Amino acid sequence: MLREEDVKTALQSVNDPEIPVSVWDLGLVTNFGIEGHRVSVQLTFTALGCSCMDWILDDVKAAVLRVPEVSAVEVEVVWDPPWTTDRMTAKARQQLAAWGIQS
Amino acid sequence: MVSNDELMHKLAAGFVVETEQDMSEDYHRLLIQTLTITADTELISIFSILDALKYVPTLNRRLTELAIIQDELGHAHIAYRLLKHLGVDVDALIYERDASEFRNPYLMDLKLQNYAELLTLHALLDRAGYVLLGDIFHHTSYGPWKRALTKVDAEEGFHVRNGESGLRLLVKTDEGRAAVQAAVDWMFVMGLDFFGMADHLKKRSLQLDLHLKGETNDQMRQRWMKSTVRFLDSIQIRTPVHWDPEQDAYLYDFPYPCQWDEAERRWRFDQPIEWSQVLSRFKRHGPYRREYVQTLRQGRETYQKLLREGVA
Q1: Nearest-Cα residue of chain B relative to residue A100
Q2: Does domain B4-311 have CATH number 3.40.190.10?
Q3: Residue-range domains of chain A with CATH
Q4: Looking at chain A, which terminus has fewer C-beta neighbours within 10 angstroms, N or C?
Q5: Between A19, A51, A98, which is nearest B63 by CB?
């Protein structure tokens, strides 16, 4: 039985390529759903001109597909809600501060 | 300024250098030398990437390369800014110095010929930069540089990951794999060269004594090989070195250093040379240096002309 927790753990394992902070903690994942063995993920980016969109999409798909019970993953890019720094978790803020980036 | 002995005594107790008054004359000179090499390397590195954008297969991967160019310019800016604080005329350094006097490594003066070479540049040579700057980040006694390198360290990691992620995709086809192997065949040795002369040929390093860096050339070269070979092994790409458990080090499977055939773009493993000959190749610099420095200056001239015309 595919659990929400397993998908969440997979999403947390994907780092943003530019700064090694999880896309989950950055608040890029706006929603995800499970239907049997299929997972759908709604994802946004920090900017329309994000330089790593394909890369992040590939990494997210690969990470969720690594969960044993998952047979298919669909990632949809959404721009509503728009990403702002408010979407980041406290953990992401701490990590970014350690890299010298304040929000 | 203080004497070397006085400064070394303070450094041994963990002293962090902040101002020119804290430095000895040698410290000031060597710091300027190291920062100039760093700044020039970051700046000139963008031209071969810029030229190779035409080989990048997708729009988004091109954006990734543009982000890397932006990072490198940022890193160059940090190093030139530190030089400015040390009393160097940075404008003259960038816009008036003869092209032959730039201190970037030979590799930056070449042009890349395909996407595999661009990705290999990131996976191997950005990694060399990461190792070198990582050493400075962890060991430098110069506070302003150490603080500035926090972000540089994170960004160089991104460039390496970009190379690795691209190469992992490329080796999935036979054609791609052959191109990656061909790129690694010549660029791996360029990576070895990055760390400079072998330790046993060098005089005792004042840079180490003054805590400007922490590791010797060979220590860094080994650290680079360890990480590079581990990655290349994971994608089954061959390297001209092997791990020797007895010596606890990577050993070369060819006479290193050896002759570089610039026209053929390959190493002549049958022609061993001395380090002095490697250094003279570095001094001669590569075939596109003048073009790259000229492009840099033209950009500024064009921009200034536009500004003047706009005002008039």
Answers
A1: B151
A2: no
A3: 4-98 (3.30.300.130)
A4: N
A5: A51
